Amino acid sequence: MEKKPLYEGKAKQMFATENPDELLVYYKDDATAFNGEKKGIITDKGVLNNKIATFFFELLGKAGIPHHLLKRLSDREMLVKKLTILPVEVVVRNIAAGSLAKRLGLAEGTKMAKTVLEFYYKDDELGDPMINDYHIAAMNLATPEQIQKVSEYALKTNEILSAYLKEKDLELIDFKLEFGLYKGEVILGDEISPDTCRFWDSKTGEKMDKDRFRRDLGNGEEAYKEVLYRLTGEK
Ligand code: ADP
Q1: C-alpha closest to that of 213 among 29, 9, 14, 27
Q2: How far is it, in rounded angstroms, from Cα 94 to Cα 105?
Q3: Which of 16, 105, 156, 184 has its CA 20 to 30 A from that of 166?
């Protein structure tokens, strides 16, 4: 397949294909945290995240959530629908951790009485500041109808993933999603993986996600491998 480099991000590289409606995504091992200030590598992360994201997209697709994945092509590559990404990142939180715990003075691990939905303006230079519906409308980042769809899909995704993961002894603490437009429709894009979610082992409370890298806990590769294994049985 002919591929032209389009954009290199922190975790993935995007290539144009012969089809203008499709992109090839290449998953790298590069790990970054704190808005790119901390950099490193998690060995084989690209392979593991490509497989984990494929699994999650297929699970969500079966439940009626439209997503960009067309086909996983190889260990590190997937073919996706080319979206116009909405510059609004969506975070769903079930249990306080990370920036929410810090900002609101909650102990990490505090269960929220209600699922929390947050929006962030996707802008690396500004450090992805948190915004609300009013900012989104005032800055024309998305229409109210699009945000309605985004919120509906994000909450449904939370239900589906939380239930599935619980059976595998993984607690879904929080996660980030990106959506985009494809032929006018709101579609789930980017990735769902231990880079973009927090997973804690239900029994031991052990962190099984990028916090292993952020917080120098070690064994990042093992944790990502274990997540893939619990989801798919693949070693
Ligand atoms: P970042 O840009 O934050 O460093 P990545 O390394 O993950 O992130 O790069 C992926 C980039 O591709 C992100 O900017 C993401 O918004 C964008 N993207 C994800 N899925 C699609 C898609 N289907 N179509 C177009 N762009 C996408």
Answers
A1: 29
A2: 16
A3: 105
C-alpha span between 165 and 199 (Å, rounded): 9
> Ligand 1 pocket, 189 CB below 6 A?
yes
Task: Please give the Cα distance from 93 to 172 (Å, whole number).
Answer: 8
**Residue located nearest, by CA, to atom 25 of ligand 1:** 83
Per-residue pLDDT band for 2 (boundaries 50, 70, 90) equals confident
Q: Ligand 1: which residue has its CA nearest to atom 17? A: 190
C-alpha to C-alpha distances, 104 to 97, 112, 128, 168, 198, nearest whole angstrom: 10, 12, 18, 30, 18
Task: Determine the Cα–Cα distance for residues 91 and 40; give it in Å rounded to an integer.
Answer: 24
User: CA-CA distance, 79 to 75, in Å (whole number)?
Assistant: 12
Say how far apart CA 215 and CA 197 lie, in whole Å: 15
Span 143-199, pLDDT tens digits: 999 999 999 999 999 999 999 999 999 999 999 999 999 999 999 999 999 999 999
- How far apart, in whole angstroms, are the C-alpha atoms of residue 16 and residue 5? 6
Give pLDDT tens digits for 70-108. Answer: 999 999 999 999 999 999 999 999 999 999 999 999 999
pTM for this predicted structure: 0.98
Q: Are 190 and 110 in contact (CB under 8 A)?
A: no
- Please report, for residues 29, 110, 213, the alpha-carbon distance to residue 221 in angstroms, rounded to integers and kept in the order given: 10, 27, 10
Structure tokens belonging to residue 144: 């109210």
Q: What is the pLDDT of residue 112?
A: 98
Q: Which two tokens stand for residue 83?
A: 């979206």
What are the DSSP calls for 40-51, one per residue? EE-TTHHHHHHH
